[in-house]
Amino acid sequence: MPELPEVETIKRSLESRITGLTFSGVDLFTPKVVRFPEPRDFIGSLTGKKVKRVGRRGKYLLIHLAGNLILAVHLRMTGKLVCLPSGTPPSKHTHAVFKLSNGFELHFSDVRRFGRLALLEAGRLETWPGLKNLGVEPLSEDFTRGFLKKELKRRRTKIKALLLDQTFIAGIGNIYADEALHRARISPEKPAASLTPREVARLYRAVREVLEEAIANRGTTFRDYVDGMGESGTNQESLKVYGREGKPCSGCGYPIRRARLGGRSTYFCPECQKSRPIL
Question: Is the CATH code 1.20.1250.20 the one for domain 145-268?
């Protein structure tokens, strides 16, 4: 958390508010959240730069600036980037305040301090660690049923682990991997290469559908996530398996089960998502 739908929602909520504005200054309270360049250079290079547009790549928020620069924001588990009126007292866990030319500010906060900021030249974006190896965007034209079928056939790992691999598909995390697999009626333990053509087709549709629906619902909020205006999402009300251990499956009524796969909690319906032996 946040995953693709949450970062996309933050992007959409901020782009109309900050595009065309200029960063008039930066208060950096926790220098270590800046990964590049040095904190002093980060502040100096950012100050005076106009926001051209706001983008996203995987789970990264990308604020494109004049001067061919990009402010890359990775929120990790508990990070927030919220637009607030100038002079709003920073919270206990606010690590940076970006002052805007219209009297508002962007507050970057993070309880667990895993989030990171970087100010990069646009040409360096594709070589930056974490960004350079990202896989296909699942809502892009490059993510097709043919692509998925071809790639799965050469992957021996379990399908849940593969969906979490950011070098394969960018932006999917634990919540939406579980939701997509349940919708596609596929066991999270099934080897990727063993999926039938029908299962591949169902998974392709499910991945796109759960992400699009989550974006329409402005993301999933359990505790920390809010959009760029500080508003919670509502997609948690639509989840079918994630976080619903012991509750009845919406498809068959069987209790949802939770298991540990690859060190991650995995929620699934043992009836709808039966793992049948490979022949």
Answer: no
CATH architecture of 4-127: Alpha-Beta Barrel (3.20)
- CA–CA distance, 14 with 239 (Å, rounded to integer): 26
Q: Is 138 a catalytic residue?
A: no
pLDDT digits (tens, 9 = 90+) for 134-149: 999 999 999 999 999 9
50 exposure class (CB count in 10 Å sphere: 0-12, 13-18, 19+): middle
11, 49, 57, 59: the active-site residue: 59
Do the Cβ atoms of 178 and 265 come closer than 8 Å? no
pTM of the model: 0.95
Q: Active-site residue 105, yes or no?
A: no
Residue 59 is a catalytic residue: yes
225-278 tens-digit pLDDT? 999 999 999 999 999 999 999 999 999 999 999 999 988 899 999 999 987 543
